[in-house]
Specification:
mainly alpha, two-stranded parallel sheet, 8 helices
Amino acid sequence: MSPTISAVLDLDALHADLYKFTFHPDLAGLAFLGLWEQTGPYFPPLELQARWITYVWSGIRPLPTRSKMNAAIAAYRDARGESQLQAMHRMALLFAHEAGVEPDLKAWPQLAPALLFGPLSAISFRLSGPDHLDDIEARVAAEARAVGTAVGSTFSNEQVSQLQDLATARKDPEFAEFVSRTTKL
């Protein structure tokens, strides 16, 4: 990588100052793919991150504002020294949200456990958005059943705890309300 870009990103072996691991406000027309440490397979989040980049560059999704990117980068810098390890599902949902293809769990409550905890694949993120596929719900459910993920609208105690942690991390009132409503035991 060029020394100029490395300096802008304050790049080291563990860190790159990027908005959601992807964009930097001072590097217009440049995006980065896969610059995070993760548990689990990289392909689902990578595909979603690539879709987000493509949607931004094609004008389907807006580029985050300079102030929003700078604020997120500042928060990221404040967390340096903490673990940089990211969970695969969390990264997939982060990029799906940014790309506008995050499944609307209210529209498919019977798929919520599979979408949040089941197999992550490209079809899981084709239920809505610019490149949705018709009649994809049955394929998502079949894939979930094939790997032993429950299809329904109930969550285990462990899943409830994970969802509550995710809702806190996302700071998204709509998602928090969904978690509250659907995880009452």
